[in-house]
């Protein structure tokens, strides 16, 4: 309570947006999560998101996602681009939505988001029952229109019911059908779609002061 009186908490107060969507583990897309992004904007090309497992006061911080414009993404080395996912399908399918915001008010934001790419590291695998963040971080990917990347229908239905969202073909999907799509989606993103493989992090001993490989 004392800290609240004397500390500005400026970075936290820059979180101006709450979005809900779904994420899949890159190494095991059958494992999927409902995720809640609390978003702050660094500039017109970069967003940073604290990702939680719910929007409750007891929500657990399970990771972080960085979101960049297509212009920024195109400047990244190919090996780095492989770690990122596209947002076009996720947005157009009505899976990503700003909670409680009427579609008419979020439409412009969604149109811009559809042309972005994200890199999402999950540090707390709550879906397997971990009581604490355990092990190495896991790279996450966005839902797509093909297996095994489709968002589970039961997860979507529960989210839609809880937040009174209609992401069906007659709801957000229909409202966003005319939304402009990216001219192209860089094939280095969504690596699993082309190569059928994801990425997993192994923690191995290394000599002290060794330069970390890139990426």
Shape: globular
Q: Rg from C-alpha positions?
A: 18 Å
Number of E strands? 8
In round numbers, the mean pLDDT is 95
Q: Provide a count of the helices.
A: 9
Low-pLDDT runs of 5+ residues are: none
Please report which band the strand proportion falls in: under 5%, 5-15%, 15-25%, 25-35%, 35-45% or over 45%.
25-35%
How do the strands of the widest beta sheet line up side by side?
Answer: 1-2-3-4-7-8
Tell me briefly what this model is.
The chain contains 9 helices and 8 strands. The protein has helices spanning 2-6, 10-13, 70-73, 78-81, 88-92, 103-113, 153-163, 172-175, 191-195, and strands at residues 17-25, 28-43, 46-52, 61-69, 85-86, 97-98, 116-122, 138-141.
How would you describe this structure to a colleague?
- The chain is an alpha+beta fold and 215 residues long.
- It is built from nine helices and eight strands.
- It has helices spanning 2-6, 10-13, 70-73, 78-81, 88-92, 103-113, 153-163, 172-175, 191-195, and strands spanning 17-25, 28-43, 46-52, 61-69, 85-86, 97-98, 116-122, 138-141.
- β1 and β2 (28-43) form a beta hairpin.
- The termini are far apart.
Which descriptors apply to this entry?
215 residues, alpha+beta, 6-stranded antiparallel beta barrel, 26% strand, OBAP-like, Oil body-associated protein 2B
Topology overview:
Layout: H1 2-6, H2 10-13, E1 17-25, E2 28-43, E3 46-52, E4 61-69, H3 70-73, H4 78-81, E5 85-86, H5 88-92, E6 97-98, H6 103-113, E7 116-122, E8 138-141, H7 153-163, H8 172-175, H9 191-195
Antiparallel strand pairs: 1-2, 1-6, 1-8, 2-3, 3-4, 4-7, 5-7, 7-8
Protein name: Oil body-associated protein 2B
Pfam family, one: DUF1264
InterPro entries: OBAP-like
